[in-house]
Write a structure and sequence with these properties.
heterodimer; A: 890 residues; 6-stranded mixed β-barrel; B: 238 residues; alpha/beta; 6-stranded mixed beta sheet; 4-stranded antiparallel beta sheet; 32% helix
Chain lengths: 890, 238
């Protein structure tokens, strides 16, 4: 007789492949079983919704990004003060990217007797790679798109240049030694990034013409810029290749990084869509967890028998994991394929609302979703499946032996880890991923603990003898409510996990609705119908009042006039800015001259985060008496470090400046720091007295640095104003130009329109995704309810055998569902508030307020949804005979 | 030759603070090719004893030798290997996997052992038990008697030295039960298998060469025919 150990080894060696085959065979035989179908459907839903959402959003965001890239005239821009190495440009060519070079410099433009300092952009023939220049034949004439650059010997100049030089299209304009013909009026350059408030008019010319002007030589302050475009992957690969080689002064930017307002809107839209896909994945995960729990429980007997017949623990794992994998493969293939085709349907339905020229679909979202669904299945099903190998073989003789509740923490942790990985793949957003993973972990713990303690608490409350006595005379409904709860309490093992699952479903749905409603309301509000669509700059101090009354007379809605001084931040606490931050971290804002301003009042959209403003915080406070203003300030003081107004001792101290919060973070600027500015050759020191949050996307004049009054007045300054003017009203602009020759008007209507378009498209996309999340949620609701169906059947059979009426059983079940819905609804509200709070503050950067309507609405909707679907799911239990029920259960 | 040897076997389970002793200091020897009936009242520990002897469970103390393998020295996977190679089972509730066909069910132990001829052997055994035309039927398409026949085929298909049967007729009507018993004992005799049968049916027990009564966790002298002088002492086959 062979030694036992030998027996084990021989067997293992001979059965490895056989076990896989056995697993596949069992899977084929088992595919029709209810629990396998549930698992299959749950995974299929996961794959389907992930593919549908990711294919859809991928196309939409790529298209939106593509369209936004029209605003920076390419997919990627590289800029720096020096000429770039030729090999960088050659490398782009090798990688199949198209390229357009440009050179920007400031110079005087002459015509006849007049001269005007202008900002010239000299571009290659292929410019713009994307988008188009807006030009017209007449000043303020209707714009026409030109996806080309001026011809050699010709320039396109902005209205304000022509106006200053008193010339027209067709006239001559001189730059240095060369003479050009004005070809067209430049209304908008294809590259819309850069400084909005530049006081100089722009001129677009050809790069080939630059040498003959003779204005560019050693020592000239130049900006070399290169535009690239090509396939997404190639552009990204090139950016990755180039990034490490850049010197301190060179900067690479794509659409999202570029400081356009469109970039910001796009980023928010992407974040929201990512969140929606995450929620879909989460729902799928919960469904799979429920389905595999049931799958596992239904296979205890099989596992016990296999063990009895000599299967090792790892054989059990192999067989069931094979079944799981086969299920996953089938469901993922069908689901991903279905989802991919469904996305065409979705686009078809939304054709009217979408940009006409959507980019072609890619295979990537399908492949990613396919694997994601598999990973979700494995992550959530692994724990219940691994439980099967711990089933004792003695169970073949004694059915009551359930597997030990093994420590599944490791599996749950790995499930959460896997979900985190997926979250990162889907969103590419680390912070969102971390919030998601930590939130998921906390919620699972919270749900378990809260659900269990809620059950115990209510049970105690209902069992209170005093209450029970009074309940004796209570209406029948109360008794039914009580027995319904006791029914739930009897099932508390299942109830806790069901409550958790329901809470997840309702949290997911509520969260998506709440975030959608709040965010879109806020985004839409950030661009109200009459958002300023023109900026007027270069308003001279002595013309300010005159300009304001001109605007007022015309009945045009305008902002306050802000003074503007150009200056550069050079030192922080006596240390050069270039020393304080490394090149990679250095924000654009300090690489060029900043627009500095002063103000007695804090702009309405701004908010003091740290320190204290020097006067009333809101323009509206200006009307209050001085003593009240002081009171307001004391209340609003955050740190209380700085005095509210200068005391006598402070009179000799530095002027105060308020710094925009993101810039402050990047430059590590703290309250009390001393900043040194260089303004028209003079040095000005100022002390940071507050850190201020600015809403950049409100299309109003915003500034990184705001000084207190009486500090900048001595420097040369002009005023800036923004106003809304219907596009067709060009007569007013012409008149404005005639009266205020120095004033330059910059139209931003197109950018506003683009941002609006993006928001509208995102809103529509989100509505659809919301429907999908809802549908997935309802499906999961059924899956969850079905998971306890056999238990209910067994109970119903016993009740019936003991003579219970159908109405009694019905009532019992319905009231149990009412409790389930109510408790799940409460859990869902709690977690929605928690999650939305974190998301708003950390990701979307909007203010959070409690959603009181949810506190009523969610539990109510949860009760209705669970009772309705529970009713449908439990119908077979209600009317069947006890014999049939018992037979079905066994 | 002794194929099953239990020495001073005890099994107790803890129920919260109390410990319930199911078997205590039990001794038993079973010879090759012997048929043994273990009888006893409900709850006397018959099934527990069977699960220990067959290596489905581990004893609290004492030793069991099964076909030369010391079960208490093996881990669960080691015992599984012994079960697969040397032991066959027949259960009261048949224990067929509902989603598999009759043929699949019979092939199962062979497949677990990596037997390349699983299909052929299983077909042959289903023929032997009279179910040659029911190969592709699933358990729910078979009668109770037919299901138990499938189970018998599955038990014999690995040609085990020892067969354990737990109330094999418990779920069958007397007539079908009789047919099943005839089949079981015929096959057993034919293959020279050692049969350990747990039952509370004295008529069924009488068909075995030897019987032991399990009472209060101890084996006492056989009562269905006086083949044992004391528990664990073995009579030769009649």
């Amino acid at each position: 007789m062979s030694a036992p150990t030998t027996v084990t080894k021989t067997l293992k060696a001979t059965t490895r492949l056989g076990l896989l085959k056995l697993g596949v065979k069992h899977w084929r035989r088992d595919i029709r079983s209810a629990e396998m179908r549930l698992l299959l459907v749950a995974t299929l839903v996961a794959a389907f919704s992930m593919t549908l959402i990711t294919s859809f959003t991928d196309r939409l965001t790529r298209t939106m990004e593509y369209r936004a890239s029209e605003l920076i005239a390419g997919d990627l821009t590289l800029r720096g003060p020096n000429e770039m190495p030729q090999e960088w440009i050659d490398e782009a060519g090798k990688r199949g990217l198209r390229h357009a070079p440009a050179l920007a410099f400031s110079t005087m433009a002459y015509a006849k007797e007049a001269l005007q300092l202008s900002r010239v952009r000299a571009v290659g023939e292929s410019y713009p790679l994307k988008g188009s220049n807006q030009v017209s034949m007449e000043p303020f004439g209707s714009p026409e798109n030109r996806a080309s650059s001026p011809e050699v010997g010709t320039v396109w100049a902005e209205q304000r240049v022509l106006q200053a030089l008193d010339i027209r299209v067709g006239d001559a304009l001189e730059l240095g030694d060369a003479r050009f013909t004005v070809g067209l009026v430049l209304q908008q350059d294809a590259d819309r990034s850069g400084n909005f408030y530049s006081p100089f008019g722009r001129i677009l010319m050809r790069l080939e013409d630059v040498p003959k002007t003779g204005v560019v030589g050693p020592g000239s302050r130049l900006l070399h810029k290169h535009y690239f475009t090509g396939d997404e992957g190639d552009v990204l690969a090139y950016a990755n290749w180039l990034e490490p080689q850049l010197t301190e002064s060179e900067k690479l930017a794509g659409v999202v990084e570029s400081e356009t307002r469109v970039g910001g809107a796009l980023e928010k839209a992407q974040q929201y869509l990512s969140l929606a896909s995450l929620v879909a994945v989460l729902l799928a995960g919960v469904a799979i967890a429920m389905a595999s729990q049931r799958f596992s429980e239904r296979h205890y007997e099989t596992a016990a028998l296999l063990r009895c017949l000599g299967a090792h623990q790892q054989d059990i794992s192999t067989i069931f994991l094979t079944k799981l994998l086969m299920t996953g493969l089938l469901a993922s293939i069908v689901g991903a394929t279905g989802g991919f085709f469904a996305h065409f349907g979705l686009l078809e339905v939304m054709r009217e609302l979408l940009p006409g020229d959507l980019l072609e679909p890619r295979g990537m979202p399908v492949v990613v979703s396919f694997f994601c669904a598999l990973v979700v299945l494995m992550a959530f099903a692994l724990a219940p499946i691994q439980k099967l190998k711990t089933v004792s073989p003695v169970r073949v003789l004694r059915r009551e032996l359930n597997p030990k509740p093994v420590t599944l923490n490791m599996y749950y942790l790995s499930a959460i880890g896997a979900m985190g990985g997926l979250a990162y793949i889907l969103t590419g957003h680390l912070k969102l991923t971390l919030i998601f993973v930590i939130g998921l972990g906390l919620l699972s713990i919270l749900y378990g603990a809260l659900a269990a303690s809620m059950l115990v608490f209510i049970q105690k409350l209902l069992l209170n003898p005093h209450r029970s006595a009074s309940a004796a005379g209570a209406p029948k409904r109360f008794k039914a409510l009580k027995s319904g709860f006791q029914q739930l309490y009897r099932h508390r093992y299942y109830a806790v996990s069901q409550l958790g699952a329901f809470a997840f479903i309702f949290t997911a749905i509520t969260l998506i609705i709440v975030v959608r409603t709040d965010l879109f309301a806020r985004w839409q509000a950030s661009i109200p119908p009459e958002t300023p669509n023109h900026f007027a700059i270069n308003i001279l101090p002595d013309k300010k009042t005159e300009f304001e009354s001109f605007i007022e007379r015309a009945g045009v809605k305008s902002s306050l006039s802000y003074p503007m001084v150009r200056g550069r931040l050079i030192e922080i606490n006596g240390e050069a800015v270039t020393e304080v931050v490394s090149k990679e971290e250095r924000p654009n804002a300090i690489q060029r001259e900043l627009n500095l301003t002063w103000s007695a009042v804090l702009a309405d959209d701004s908010e003091i985060l740290e320190g204290q403003w020097w006067g009333p915080e809101k323009a509206s406070d200006l009307t209050k008496p001085a003593d009240q203003q002081a009171g307001t300030d004391t209340k609003r003081s955050v740190t209380g470090l700085s005095p509210n107004s200068k005391s006598k001792d402070d009179l000799t101290s530095l002027p105060r400046v308020s710094v925009e919060s993101e810039l402050a973070t990047k430059l590590n600027i703290q309250i009390g720091d001393e900043l040194t500015f260089k303004i028209t050759g003079q040095v000005l020191n100022a002390e940071v007295s507050s850190i201020r949050k600015v809403k950049w996307d409100n299309f109003k004049p915003n500034f990184y640095m705001v000084f207190e009054p009486d500090t900048l007045e001595k420097f040369h300054h002009t005023y800036l104003n923004s106003f809304y003017l219907p596009l067709e009203d060009s007569a007013l602009l012409l008149e404005m130009n005639r009266q205020f020759k120095a004033v330059s008007v910059i139209p931003v209507e197109q950018i506003i329109r683009q941002v609006r378009d993006i928001l509208n498209q995102t809103t529509v996309a989100v509505e659809y995704i919301l429907l999908l999340v809802l549908a997935a949620g309802i499906l999961l609701l059924f899956a969850t309810l079905l998971s306890t169906l056999s238990l209910r059947k067994k109970e119903a059979a016993i009740y019936r055998t003991l003579g219970a009426q159908t109405s009694y059983i019905r009532q019992l079940i319905i009231f149990e569902y009412i409790w389930l819905g109510l408790l799940a609804g409460i859990l869902a509200v709690l977690s929605t508030e928690l999650l939305s709070g974190v998301l708003y503050v950390q990701i979307f950067e909007v203010d959070w307020e409690p959603h009181w309507v949810l506190w009523m609405g969610t539990p109510f909707s949860a009760v209705v949804a669970i009772v309705l679907s529970g009713w449908l799911a439990s119908r077979p239990v209600m009317d069947a005979s006890p014999t049939r029920l018992l037979r079905e259960v066994s | 030759m002794v194929v099953i040897k239990a020495d001073n076997l005890s099994k107790s389970v803890s129920l919260g603070t109390q410990t319930l002793s199911i078997l205590s200091g039990l001794n038993l020897e079973v010879n090759a090719q012997q048929t043994l009936a273990i009888i006893g009242r409900s709850g006397s520990g018959k099934s527990t004893l069977l699960s220990l002897l067959a290596g489905l469970d581990s004893a609290t103390s004492g030793t069991i030798q099964l076909n030369g393998h010391e079960l208490s020295s093996l881990d669960e996977n080691g015992r599984a290997a012994v079960r697969n190679q040397h032991v066959g089972f027949i259960f009261q509730s048949f224990q067929l996997l509902p989603h598999l066909t009759a043929l699949d069910n019979v092939m199962l132990p062979l497949e677990l052992a990596g037997d390349a001829e699983a299909d052929l052997k299983a077909r042959a055994w289903l023929e032997r038990v009279g179910l040659g035309d029911r190969l592709d039927h699933q358990p729910n398409q078979l009668s109770g008697g037919e299901q138990q026949r499938v189970a018998i085929a599955r038990a014999f298909v690995t040609e085990p030295e020892i067969l354990f049967a737990d109330e094999p007729t418990g779920n069958l009507d007397p007539q079908t039960g009789q047919t099943i018993i005839d089949l079981l004992f015929n096959l057993n005799a034919e293959h020279g298998t050692t049969l350990v049968l747990v039952t509370h049916d004295h008529d069924l027990a009488k068909l075995c060469q030897r019987h032991v009564l399990l009472d209060a966790g101890q084996l006492v002298d056989g009562e269905a025919g006086d083949h044992t002088s004391h528990a664990g002492e073995v009579n030769s086959p009649s």
